[in-house]
Specification:
heterodimer; A: alpha/beta; 4-stranded mixed beta sheet; 1 helix; globular; B: alpha/beta; 6-stranded mixed beta sheet; 9 helices; 26% helix
């Protein structure tokens, strides 16, 4: 009975460490951990994990316009021309799939923890 | 060694290719589209007369608002296109625009496009939207201007000179994998629209994205087009006109002729070349030859139509 709280504490610590590792990996991939680059007809990274309350920004680096449209209609950007950005604040945890409505093969995911 | 005849036809073929950016001219003969060189039609009035009065001219992918290197002056290219159409000795009865009127669905882009279109001597224009026309956050800009014909649904039909025209929308829903989609409601509407029509009625179907799969990795096709084709196959003469890919690709399958028109704005790469279907930069002196329109004539009214492509230069 005395051991149980200790185990809980260890479990909580592990989650905190894993969470920290996750964000440091994201930081290596791009200087801004809440940014999705739209380039060469792809969302990079294709899957981004952020904490609840984070604002994610998409920036179009192509000569061709792209859009960011949630599969559940939660968010929808207008057409983003070259170097234009779109941001959305994710307040609730979950997995959010999105696509470019102009080039629907372009797909991506935001995981909110 | 090439004889005069083959030199001539080769030159005409090159001219025809060169005209690609300005638009396309079509005649349908016995259910089969025969390409007609618009450059030739313009320079040789007798052969132009043989084509009959152009039933309509297809303009596509004007992309008003585009300003990148591949064509910094798309408004100028559209003006040039309109001059070519206005200069045709027999004016087409209709203009059909197969979408991507604008580049970014901005109100100012639609306004400029409409201002330019108002210079056309042929005033009756029918449109379907491209995915660039429905990329505003609220998807309202296109419909507030061009939605009336379809009661804001995007699909509608009408008759002209004994030909039944069907405009379809395939840019609003997408199947996973990226092909365009017509959707169950629209397919049901087509079935009802065709139900009591005689199979001898020539049918022209127009939509933005190709209604046949040209290149799936780039989404150059429509996922549920087979269901549409099975409804069209009983008809003796079916012409399917699309845009989207900014280059001419055509095929004939039984009584159905498929044709994609050139753009009037900028060329795109051949399927699969490069990272994606973006603007293709070509030397400035080659650009006009890769832009164009398509024109469609009735050769033997009302059962025969002929197709012809014309480039801007």
């Amino acid at each position: 009975m005395v051991i149980a709280p200790t185990r809980l504490l260890i479990a909580a610590l592990s989650i905190a460490i894993l969470g920290g590792m996750g964000s440091s990996i994201a930081a290596e991939a791009d200087s801004d951990p809440s940014k999705v680059v739209v380039k060469d007809f792809m969302f990079t990274p294709m899957s981004l994990t952020v904490k609840a309350g984070s604002t994610v920004t998409w920036e179009n680096m192509d000569d061709e316009p792209h859009t960011v449209v949630s599969n559940t209609q939660l968010f929808r950007s207008g057409a983003l021309d070259t170097k234009e950005t779109f941001s959305f604040k994710f307040t609730e945890t979950g997995t959010y799939h999105f696509t470019c409505s102009i080039h629907p093969r372009m797909v991506g995911t935001i995981v909110v923890q | 060694m090439l004889d005069d005849q083959s030199l001539l036809s080769r030159r005409n073929a090159l001219k025809c290719m060169a005209f690609g950016g300005a638009g396309t001219l079509f005649a349908l003969s016995g259910g089969v589209f025969t390409p007609i060189d618009l450059a030739m039609a313009a320079s040789d009035k007798q052969s132009a007369a043989k084509l009959g009065r152009p039933l309509f001219v297809q303009i596509s992918d004007t992309h008003i608002g585009f300003n990148k290197e591949a064509n910094p002056d798309v408004a100028g290219s559209l003006t040039q296109t309109i001059d070519i159409v206005n200069g045709m000795s027999d004016q087409p009865a209709l203009i059909i625009h197969t979408g991507d009127i604008t580049h970014l669905s901005k109100p100012t882009e639609f306004d400029l496009a409409q201002q330019l279109f108002s210079r056309l001597r042929t005033t009756e224009m029918h449109t379907v939207p491209g995915e660039h026309d429905t990329s505003d956050a609220t998807v309202t800009e296109y419909f507030s201007r061009f939605g009336k014909a379809s009661d804001n649904k995007g699909y509608y039909s009408f008759d002209h000179a004994g030909v039944h025209f069907i405009g379809l929308i395939n840019v609003l829903q997408f199947k996973s994998g990226g092909l365009g989609t017509l959707g169950a409601d629209q397919l049901e509407w087509v079935a009802a629209d065709l139900k009591h029509r005689s199979s001898s009625t020539p049918i022209v179907v127009f939509a933005h994205m190709p209604l046949w799969t040209i290149y799936e990795p780039w989404g150059w096709g429509t996922g549920d087009a087979d269901q549409l084709m099975s409804q069209l196959r009983p008809f003796g003469s079916v012409t399917v006109l699309n845009g989207h890919i900014h280059q001419i690709v055509q095929k004939v399958e039984g009584n159905v002729t498929f044709h994609t028109a050139r753009s009037t704005s900028y060329p795109q790469p051949v399927a699969g070349v490069g990272s994606g279907p973006g603007p293709l930069k070509v030397p400035a002196d080659q650009l006009a030859s890769m832009l164009g329109i398509t024109s469609v004539s009735v050769v033997k009214h009302p059962s025969a139509l002929t197709l012809s492509d014309t480039a801007l230069a």
